Structures are given as C-alpha cells and as structure tokens.
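Subject: complex prediction, re-run

Hi both,

The earlier run crashed halfway through, so I resubmitted it with identical inputs.
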Amino acid sequence: MSRAPRSSSYTEYHPRWYRKRVSTWWWTTRWSYFKFILREISSVFVAWFIVELLMLIHAMSSGTAPYPQQAYWEFEAFLRNPVVVFLNIVSLFFVVFHAITWFNLAASAMVVRVGGKKVPGILIAAGNYMAWIVVSAIIALFLIKA
Amino acid sequence: MAETIILEVTRYSPEQDTEPHLQRYEVPLRKDWVVLDALNYIKDKVDGSLTFRWSCRMGICGSCGMMVNGEPKLTCATFLSSYAAIGVVRVQPLRYFPVIRDLVVDIGDFISKLQSVKPWLIPKEQTQTFEGEYLQTPEQLDRYKQFSMCINCVLCYAACPVYGLDPVFIGPAAIALAQRYNMDSRDTGDQERMDVLAQHEGIWGCTFVGDCTKACPKHVDPAGAIQQYKLTATVDRLKSLLMPWGTK
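This time it finished cleanly. Structure:
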C-alpha cells in the first residue's frame, strides 16, 4: 500500500516546529540540577585528595641521608600553608558530599531480595552508612593509638 | 478562596509566530477542577483555537503531560487549588520536545527510541496460542511490575536535563521499559536490548540527576531502573572480559 502524500507544509521535519535551545545556565534553575553539578565537580576534589596522597607517598619514600625525613617535613610544611588548608577543607566537604550521593545511589542501583521480598532502599543506604562509620572509626582508632 | 485564577498558557501557531508567547486567561477556580478542566473551559468557552492533547482524564493515557509552573505534570492530576495561593498557573508545552502548536509537542523521538529497545516479550521459543499462556508466579511478576506501570507520558524526558542537552540519549522511560522486559521471567531478549542500552547514548548517558523519578506520576522510578541496568551491564562486561569463552 502506498503512503498517502504528506502536505508540503507538514513534512516529517517541519521547519517551523519550535525547538527551544537549552540555556547555558540551565543548572541554576533548580536545586536538584545545581546539586547534580556540585556532585560532578566533586570529582575534581576527589582527584586532588588522590594527588595529595601520592605526594605524601613520594615524600615518605624519597628521603636521603643525613636527613631521611627532610622530604616529609617539607611536605608537612606545604600542608600547613593556609591556602592548602583551605583547599583541603573545601575538598573534604566535596568528598563527603560525593560519598553521601554515592550511598544514596546504591539504594537505587541495588535490588536485594530477602525471602522473595524487596529490601527497602533506605535499609541498603543505612547499611552503607553503617559500614562507612565502622571503617572510619577503625581508621580513627588506629591513627589515635599510633 | 478566590473565585477565579489566572492561567498563562503558551500559544504558538507555526503559520504566524516565530516563537511562542504566553496568553492570559481568567478561569473559574473550582475546588474539584484540575488544570486540564481549566484548559477545556478555555477551549469551550473562551478560545476554541487553543490546542492541547488529552484523552482519559484519569492518569492512564499519559497524553495530557505539560509543564505546570515549570514542573512536568499530568494536567488531569494537577489541581488548580494547589496554585490558589500563587494565583497564577503557567501552562507550557513539555520541555525539550519540539512544539507543533500551542501545548502540543512532537514525541516521535521518544517513540522511535522506545521501539529501539524492543519493548515486547521475546520468549525463548515462540509458541502457538492453543499451547496456552506463558506462566509466571506472583514473585516473578513482582520483579518488574513497578516498571510496567509506565504510561509513556514522557514527563521524565521533560524532567531530564541530559535529554535536553544531548537529544541522542535514549532517555528514562525507554530504559525503564526495556528493564521491564529484561526482568520478566518469560523474556530472553536481554542480550538483544543490551546492544542498544549499553551504549553511551543508552544507560551511560545518564548522570543520575534523579528528577525523572520525582516527575513520574506512576512511581516507576526510571532513575532506579537505569542505575540497576548499569550494574547489570558492568557485571556482564566483566564476565565477558574474564570469561571470554563463556556463552553470552
């Protein structure tokens, strides 16, 4: 069966259909969009913490006689710099924010069934938070004792 | 409660206008009226040229989705009285879709994406009707029932900034409906769907803004469906890397 001819003014790609361009500032229009952008930016601060950890390992392993701890001391002085302290406080905020959004996502991504019933997402998130608190407490205990 | 409320409605005539504009109408503010009732009042009593889609008036057909004060809503389930305090209800066409006229948008893009994920049962062996139904236990039904509630109203697309910025993204409803069949015990088409879903334009385009789930009037949780499928696709990819000899 042949297709009925379309009207010339109503083609499949009608040139006069109105398509609104998404504004560059779309992420400022809603709190959820803004939160999403903050979460995306948080990856930069996660990366910064990893760089800092690598710098620490490098400093601890590159000392030479007669002052094997010289590189570490220099790194410590770098950490005491107010700009670095500020950057680390901001980074900590973003990393905690990143972790919270990750745990909340886990509740959506994981479907756990016990006895045929779906475990509520809030319990999965709670399990993640508990594990986070326990691991943090163990690390804190280890650092305090050391 | 005031006796009337202002409706600011998008008007766009492709033959006359270069871009849409808002037109104000004063409509009765009745306790039991939804936004769709107000639009029908305008159509019947004030301006018969106002164009919009609707059908069932009871949140089933999914055709009356519009932006109401910036939020994607089914206008048949959005009461005017909720906006009585503001005094103005702004009704606009669903965001991110091309506008054909007034409040009518073209959802052809969604329909073609939906078809691409094969939203139908793909059984292992096709059987004849006389052989009976494909049987399923209530527990098996429970695994996908939530996703089967989708009514294709595309509110989730209007809520998704990823779809707005990157229109090649398959989008929330199509992925949720793919997952509806993937999780069905009678279906064996998950690998066929994975070819479409496990692409950048598929699940990996989603950055989990999560507004699709908030906008969904049927509590389908498309954001959850996408994150669950990300986990499935990752496990499948790891399996194929670690056990390339395994059957797919």
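Residues 31-61 of chain A form the longest helix (31 residues).

- K.
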